[in-house]
Amino acid sequence: MHRLRPLLALLLAPALVGCFASGGGSDAATGAEDGSRLRVALAFPPAENLSPYGADSTTLTRLGVIEGLTTLDANGAAAPALAASWRRENDRTWLFTLREATFQDGSAVTPAAVANALTHATQAKPAPAALSGVTLTAKAEGATGVRITTGQPDPVLPLRLSSPALAVLSAKAYGSNGKVDPAGTATGPFELTKVMGATAATLDRYDDYWGGRAQASGIDVKFVADGTARANALRTDQVDLAEAIPVAQAATLDKASREATATTRTTSLLLNTEKGVFKDAALRAAARQAVDTSALAKGVYEGYADAGTGIYGPAVTWAAGKRTEPVGRAKAEKPDGTRITLATYDNRPELPEVAQVLKQQLEKAGFDVALEVREYSRLESDALDGRFDAFVLARNTLVDTGDPVSVLASDYTCDGGYNIAQLCDKDVDRAVARAENTADTAERQDAAMAAEARILGTDAVVPLVHQRIITGVGSTVRGALLDPYERTLVGTGTRR
Fold first, then answer.
1. Which residues does UniProt assign to the signal peptide (predicted)?
2. Any idea what DSSP says for residue 249?
3. CB within 10 Å: which end of the chain, N or C, has fewer?
């Protein structure tokens, strides 16, 4: 069956002819040395009007629009961005020294502007995932300093501040209605100049970027939820970069045009612990026992994934050696025809197929499964409100902060801002709190794994696979930024 899929993909791929005509600005010339515009196909249309406080923040960093005080280096450590340096003054206070930079509206990046941006982030509803369980205040200190004080000791604050959701925008970005507009108010090498709803966006080069002038004169973005369409657009030279190429379409691209990157992304089955069928831990255990993860890795992902072993996968290199057995698992009970609703989204094209295989596995175990698939932006609010019994989610475990504990706090604690499993367990909260309060790197990793064991013991989450993401890169493109945290794609050196 899999041998037929590349041919079917070519026959059935939706046409995107004409979709990538330049939407803003004009090329200085046609050659790469003259700053050609880049044409990019992204999988996820804006879910929150490109607010930096939710999932859209990663889209903005991938396009080189927004930045924070820090960023992540190749090893996942905090590195300078808008902050040139920092030091810890005591267990709750840090002083960050700013570099000289300007916002895209021409105003200077001052300590007051940074403090204002961070204050708005702390007041956002719901709270950004990077601030789950964390309180902080930011105040200007002299001409170049920003002093940040946390409610509790936060040894990984520089990592936390690398979160895309804690981007620094100018005062003009923040409306009186609580909305945030990153267009023309950010600091990155590309300025968002036009957004066409959930279909397209135009970005122009910001020539006064502190990190140097980008080689591309701008970016024309189409949001294309259909994975087959993205692959076909790259194959027919309608786009230069296409994210999240479906495994089933990889063979339709030249080998040189597909880049597989090991990521810290884990696809999991999340079970609603607050209400409905899976409030019963015994039925959660039955669902977990029904799942054959190796069938998903080999079948659906065709080798571009590893069978799920935990919340953290092989790309988190230290995790395997520190993993312990789940704590406190319930004994499974027979479902006896219990009806459940299983939901997922189609922006990541393997997920509907994963859900279909899970449906078969769960039904074989005795569940009666209704499957619901939508585009992510039309599904997120219902998922966060706990309106499904089960949800298949692909989640980069280090995308929010680079800190392994942050995803545990945001996704699995009582006050977590991205708690789709609706988990509220005192033992889990205590274990996560211990990890959050541990400063030493090795000890923090140990504590994170102890918390993982507690979380897995609840069967609120069943890790399915750890992914390698396929990005389509045109033959003329140089300098695409592919990283395991999936925060970058286009930078100053990306060109064609």
1. 1-21
2. G
3. N
Q: Which domain holds residue 140?
A: 66-187
What Å distances lie between residue 462 and 154, 287, 421, CA to CA? Answer: 29, 9, 11
pLDDT in tens, 398-450: 877 888 998 999 999 999 989 999 999 999 999 999 998 888 888 999 999 99
What is the Cα–Cα distance from 232 to 227, expressed in whole angstroms? 9
For CA atoms 219, 176, 400, 169, give the dihedral sign: positive
Q: How far apart are CA 63 and CA 165, in angstroms?
A: 14
pLDDT (average), residues 454-460: 98
Pairing, β 390-396 against β 368-374: unpaired
According to the model, what pLDDT value does residue 27 have?
37
Distance CA 229, CA 137 (A): 45
- CA 305 to centroid of chain Cα atoms: 17
Task: Dump strand ranges (E) for 142-226.
Answer: 145-150, 190-196, 200-205, 218-223
Residue 212 lies in a domain: no
Domain end residue (candidates: 187, 211, 239): 187
Q: How many CA atoms lie within 13 A of 386 on its CB side?
A: 17
Whether 410 is in a domain gets the answer yes
d(CA 479, CA 490): 8
**What values do phi and psi take at 454, rounded to 5?**
-65, -45
pLDDT of residue 34: 55
Residues 315 and 455 in one domain: yes
Count structural domains, the chain. Answer: 2
Phi, psi torsion values for 282, nearest 5 degrees: -65, -35
Would you place residue 133 in the very low, low, confident or very high pLDDT band (cuts 50, 70, 90)?
confident
What average pLDDT does the structure give for the chain?
90
Q: How far is CA 42 from CA 56, 244, 384, 436, in A?
A: 11, 8, 23, 34
Beta bridge partners of residue 145, listed in sequence order: 97, 141
Is the preceding omega at residue 126 within 30 degrees of 0, hence cis?
yes
**The domain that contains 166 carries what CATH number?**
3.40.190.10
**For residue 14, what pLDDT is reported?**
38
**Domain check: are 156 and 302 in the same one?**
no
Tell me which residue has tokens 């993860």.
Answer: 293
